[in-house]
Amino acid sequence: MKPILVAAAQTETVPGDLAANLIVHRRFIDEAGERGVQLVVFPELSLAGHSAGTDALRLGLPRDAAALRELAQGCSSVVAVVGFVEEAPGAQFYNSVATLYAGRVMHVHRKIALATYGRLDDGKYYGHGERLDQFTLPDDPRWQIATPICADLWNPALMHRLACDGATLCAAPVSSAVEAVGDAFDNPRGWDAVLRAHALVYGLPIAFANRVGHEGALRFWGGSRIVGPRGETLAQSESAREELVVATLDYDAVRAARFDLPTVRDARGVPALKSDIVSVS
């Protein structure tokens, strides 16, 4: 089969304004379709805003919400991964992403590693996700796609699991601000290291979509990019404005990378290990 086009939609979210954010999403989905993109990834909480947890009672949407289904109607040729506050049964709220295609919500991932450090307080408002499911790209099942959200990618155990479960492409919705962790922490440099490491170690391409703009005292730095299976940057935003970052991914490159560095193969063959702590006096 032919290579595919994937895109990271680097957008600015209007906090708490679902109608305005839906307009932006439709515009980028339309552009992605016109450019022949098969998968477009939006930032974390792209429909609601970084601090949407404080207003979850108003902004929460069930996974079958009319707003999501209507947005999915525009996804006739492109699969779109969008961020939203999910209201689940029992009045439980999650930081989630919905994957939209052909008029329906085909997959939902709930953020597992809730960020509760620095200026991040996911744990105050959202429940922890408990599943790391994947889906296949329509018409090309070689591409098995996982959608870990932001801090999920900073948990090595989660990334190891999704790679060993068969993921061949990672869609990474992120909402990263310069000030989010602390003055001594370089968020852009940290993300560059994490993305390259995961891609290189597992032969796993990553579509990283970060937002731009301001929200309160937080400045979102963008840097959206597509990273190839050898840790190479295939395309990257160099601006702090809204844009669609597009790159071609070839499955043969994934095959070759995993053949040369068979991390996934070897990890699957490692038996369960046990360890003891030995006191030395």
Automatic annotation (TrEMBL):
The keyword Hydrolase applies. Keywords: Hydrolase. SUPFAM superfamilies: Carbon-nitrogen hydrolase. One of its GO terms (biological process) is putrescine biosynthetic process from arginine. Residues 4-251 form the CN hydrolase domain. GO terms for molecular function: N-carbamoylputrescine amidase activity. InterPro entries: Aliph_Amidase/BUP, C-N_Hydrolase, C-N_Hydrolase_sf. PANTHER family: BETA-UREIDOPROPIONASE, NITRILASE C965.09-RELATED. This is Nitrilase. It comes from Paraburkholderia sprentiae WSM5005.
